[in-house]
UniProtKB/TrEMBL annotation, chain A:
GO terms for cellular component: nucleus. Residues 55-66 have a biased composition (Polar residues). Homodimers and heterodimers. The lineage of its organism: Eukaryota, Viridiplantae, Streptophyta, Embryophyta, Tracheophyta. Pfam families: AUX_IAA. This is Auxin-responsive protein. Its main location: nucleus. It comes from Vitis rotundifolia. Aux/IAA proteins are short-lived transcriptional factors that function as repressors of early auxin response genes at low auxin concentrations. GO terms for biological process: auxin-activated signaling pathway; regulation of DNA-templated transcription. Keywords: Auxin signaling pathway, Nucleus, Repressor, Transcription, Transcription regulation.
UniProtKB/TrEMBL annotation, chain B:
SMART domains: FBOX, LRR_CC. This is F-box domain-containing protein. Pathway: Protein modification; protein ubiquitination. Residues 5-46 form the F-box domain. It is found in: Nucleus. PANTHER family: F-BOX/TPR REPEAT PROTEIN POF3, PROTEIN TRANSPORT INHIBITOR RESPONSE 1. Keywords: Auxin signaling pathway, Developmental protein, Nucleus, Ubl conjugation pathway. Its main location: nucleus. One of its GO terms (biological process) is auxin-activated signaling pathway. It comes from the Eukaryota. GO terms for molecular function: auxin binding.
């Protein structure tokens, strides 16, 4: 499918010719215009899918299946909509904002951990945030993401003690309380982090220079 | 003419002229008036810190005492501007440190301010009095400690909505014991604990303290003491949260509030315990401004509170107020000028409160002085908008946010074009407008033909084609700021109205259909504009020229392209001959 004038399709394979999946691109990780995408969900063994996935039943956040395939709330969020300031987002609940950095990307985003009920909602939202393009309504369709096996990026976080941990290690509420910031780390660098099963007190050094 | 008008007389006359636009007019009369005026101008407002360089500002106005600067575009508030975009205050402050040793006031909005910048302020300006940092970031309590320790004549310190790195809790104690000039303190955005004894002593020794806005970490039991030490307060921001309700604390608080006879403005009330609300009743009659947008107070309590505030001019509240609360407001508060209703659960799929367009219609009918509205709701109709427009032709600011995108008139299922059309048609002095809901190009036709005084327009998920943008750019004579996201506007309208952009402060467009080619063309055609392309996915040269850019920020400037851009922002070349490709 070739790009049409003024309505290019970012996933077109001809656009893909401009890119390698390797580090030559200045773009974000996952910004390969061929439409492939690493799925963070794989790192925590969750089956995080978009609304068109056939196995919704395995997604616990879609328990209220009424057949209308309404995606879980965290995934329908558009950046900056509705236009409420971060400080105001949801008065009914407390908020906990943490910065999210992605290795290789020159900018940060922030997320409010209190807005999510589980790892899969958080990771789904991160996928949206750091995906190819923002969701564009004028194309009258939503982006469909296909998670890719063997992701390049591991979601990690710095906890209260300054240690870097893999996201998903501890129960969700404990994570929300102790997380100071998030970092989507290149898998190659994440090797030094505490292996999943080990206790925190026996973790290898949480080097801040990671 | 055989004589010249004495300069001193002109200077004296000019000292009565405060408004920037009047002073600008004065400076256009003739060269000598231009020269006299620039030497006696004391206040400068720079709406876009990249529109002019510090050097140019200093060269023109050598004797400033007060400067206001704005940095990031407004959409930064909603996470649409990448984090490292810019808006650095340091270069300005460093330049001022050399040029204006007598600078007294700095007001910064949406800028990045470092601790080094704060240190410069603290050490270089001997008579520094006012520091306002609204929605800024980049500094810590260490920077604040330096300010506290050095600024002997500080009157105002305002950190509203700023992000402060809390590294030390005793920065307030850095104000020396001899320091007594504080008049206004706003530390609502500080999240960690502060030394309360320091705060109490500070409040106790500053007899002119009129504004005290505290963070939510200040416990309720401290409040009566603070209020007793500062009964002259005019503005208070405080939490009213406590773990248990103590009758003792209750009566102390009630007594303390009654003692604040001059209290006019109240905000905060996070985590309010409803049983403490009656302590506020004695002051309600005197209140002109009430900001309950952080307070999860439910409708019945809200009604009780608000119906006692007969002198209220400004109300900011959550949608917990519901239609019934707004009806009560319309009956009790006949002096209301400004209403803002914020969503308590903006991301919820279903409405959690019974607040509809009816509430706004009631207020528009009952409050004759209402001129400024910000309203979040979940449904709207053309007939309601038309009614509001007819009721309140004196509206100057109208911002409506229907939470669900593309939401049509809930009665007819038509677009809301006609309703917003009525607003611009009847409200002839409308200066600011934000649209939402299902909208076609038609609404822009109305806006273009009627919005002659419109200065700021915010659009999201609206319109059908370039024609929409064309109507706005060609019709709105007074337009200064235009911010657009996710609208199908593209090259044609932008290029045809290129000249218009030089009459505006700025244009923001994100997730629209403006091609990279058009951006380059615009950059070449209009050398006095900075056409900035923001591309987080990589250099736009890597994709075909027809591809739309992610985000575009265009602003007029006399200083050329900026030199502090991050790696994902590019200014389009003004001189194509210099480009190698």
């Amino acid at each position: 499918m070739s790009p049409q004038l003024a309505k290019p399709s970012p996933e077109s394979s001809s656009a893909g010719l401009h890119f390698n999946d390797t580090e030559l691109t200045l773009g974000l990780p996952g910004a390969t215009k061929s439409g492939t995408k690493r799925g963070f969900s794989d790192t925590v063994d969750l089956n995080l899918r978009g609304p068109c996935n056939t196995d919704h039943a395995s997604n616990p956040s879609e328990n209220d299946v009424s057949g209308d395939s309404k995606p879980p709330p965290a995934k329908t969020q558009i950046v900056g909509w509705p236009p409420v300031k971060a400080s105001r987002k949801n008065v009914a609940k407390i908020s906990k904002y943490v910065k999210v950095a992605v290795d290789g990307a020159p900018y940060l985003r922030k997320v409010d951990l209190e807005m999510y009920g589980s790892y899969q909602q958080l990771l789904g939202s991160l996928e949206d945030m750091f995906s190819c393009f923002p969701i564009r309504n004028y194309l009258n369709e939503r982006k469909l993401m296909d998670p890719v096996k063997g992701s390049d990026y591991m979601p990690t976080y710095e906890d209260r003690d300054g240690d870097w941990m893999l996201v998903g290690d501890v129960p969700w509420k404990m994570f929300v309380e102790s997380c100071k910031r998030l970092r989507l780390m290149k898998s190659t660098e994440a090797i030094g982090l505490a292996p999943r099963a080990s206790q925190k007190c026996t973790s290898t050094s949480g080097s801040k220079s990671l | 003419m055989g004589y010249s008008f004495p300069e001193e007389v002109l200077e004296h006359v000019l000292s009565f002229i405060d408004s920037d636009s009047d002073r600008n007019s004065v400076s256009l009369v003739c060269k000598s008036w231009h020269d006299i005026e620039r030497w006696c101008r004391r206040r400068l407002f720079v709406g876009n810190c990249y529109a002019v360089s510090p050097a140019i500002a200093i060269r023109r106005f050598p004797e400033l005492r007060s400067v206001s600067l704005k940095g990031k575009p407004h959409f930064a508030d909603f996470n649409l501007v990448p984090h490292e975009w810019g808006g650095y205050a340091y270069p300005w402050i460093a330049a001022f440190a050399e040029a204006y040793p007598w600078l007294e006031e700095l007001r910064l909005k949406r800028m990045v301010v470092s601790d080094e910048a704060l240190e410069l302020i603290a050490k270089k300006f001997k008579n520094f009095r006012v520091l306002v940092m609204y929605s800024c970031e980049g500094f810590s309590t260490d920077g604040l400690a330096t300010i506290a320790a050095n600024c002997r004549n500080l009157k105002e310190l305002d950190l509203s909505e700023s992000e402060v790195d809390d590294v030390s809790e005793n920065w307030l104690c850095q104000f020396p014991d001899s320091y007594t000039s504080l008049e206004s303190l706003n530390i609502t955005s500080l999240s960690s604990e502060i030394r309360f004894s320091g705060l109490e002593r500070l409040v106790g020794r500053c007899p002119n303290l009129k504004t005290l806005k505290l963070s939510h970490s200040v416990p309720l039991d401290l409040l009566p003491n603070l209020l007793q030490k500062a009964p002259q307060l005019v503005e208070l921001g405080s939490g009213l949260h406590t773990k248990e309700v103590h009758p003792d604390l209750y009566s102390k608080l009630a007594g303390a509030f009654s003692g604040c006879k001059g209290l006019k403005r109240l905000c905060g009330l996070w985590d309010v315990v409803p049983s403490y609300l009656p302590t506020l009743y004695p002051i309600c009659f005197g209140l002109t401004s009430l900001n309950l947008s952080d307070a999860p107070i439910q409708c019945p309590e809200l009604i009780k509170l608000v119906s006692q505030c007969q002198n209220l001019q400004r109300l900011w509240v959550l949608d917990y107020i519901e239609d019934t609360g707004l009806n009560a407001l319309a009956e009790s508060c006949k002096d209301l000028r400004e209403l803002r209703v914020f969503p308590s659960d903006p991301f919820g799929q279903e409405p959690n409160v019974s607040l509809t367009e009816q509430g706004l219609v009631s207020v528009s009918a009952g409050c004759p002085k209402l001129h400024s509205v910000l309203y979040f709701c979940r449904r709207m109709s053309n007939v309601a908008l038309s009614t509001i427009a007819r009721n309140r032709p004196n509206l100057t600011r109208f911002r409506l946010c229907i939470i669900e995108r593309f939401c049509p008139d809930y009665i007819t299922l038509e677009p809301l074009d006609v309703g917003f059309g009525a607003i611009v048609e009847h409200c002839k002095d409308l200066k600011r407008l934000s649209l939402s809901g299902l909208l076609t190009d038609r609404v822009f036709e109305y806006i273009g033909s009627h919005g002659k005084k419109l200065e700021m327009l915010s659009l999201a998920f609206a319109g059908d084609s370039d024609l929409g943008l064309h109507h706005v750019l060609s019709g709105c004579k007074s337009l200064r700021k235009l911010e657009i996201r996710d609208c199908p506007f593209g090259d044609k309208a932008l290029l045809e109205n290129a000249a218009k952009l030089e009459t505006m402060r700025s244009l923001w467009m994100s997730a629209c259909q403006v091609s990279y080619r058009a951006c380059k063309l615009l950059g070449q055609k209009m050398p006095r504009l900075n056409v900035e392309v923001i591309a987080e996915q990589g250099h736009p040269d890597l994709s075909p020229d027809e591809y739309p850019v992610e985000k575009l920020y265009i602003y007029r400037t006399v200083s050329g392209p900026r030199s502090d851009m991050p790696s994902f922002v590019w200014t389009m070349d003004k001189n194509p001959a210099l480009r190698s490709s």
